[in-house]
Write a structure and sequence with these properties.
- The structure is a single chain.
- The relative contact order is 0.36.
- The chain is globular.
- A hairpin with a 6-residue loop joins strand 5 (44-49) and strand 6 (56-60).
- It is mainly beta.
- The protein starts with a strand and ends with a strand.
- The protein has no helices and seven strands.
- The model has no long low-confidence stretch (mean pLDDT 97).
């Protein structure tokens, strides 16, 4: 799963933790807000969390390219 973390102003947000469940797979967004999770096939719930932002969730599957917006 590849994606981007963006704020309410659509600007990229670095250093956000993205967790995929089931399986508790984790990664962090890069300086330009990008992230990649290499996980087995299936449907996952991604949760993005970071200091100063409310948690956000989105469903995704391997091969998806998504944007998660935080506020």
């Amino acid at each position: 799963i590849q994606g981007q973390i963006a704020g309410p102003d659509n600007k990229p947000i670095p250093d956000i933790t993205i967790t995929a469940t089931p399986g508790n797979h984790q990664t962090k967004s890069t300086a330009n807000g990008a992230f990649t999770l290499t996980i087995p096939p299936g449907q996952y719930l991604l949760t993005a969390t970071g200091r100063g932002y409310l948690p956000a969730q989105q469903e995704a599957a391997p091969g998806d390219n998504i944007t998660i917006k935080l506020r």
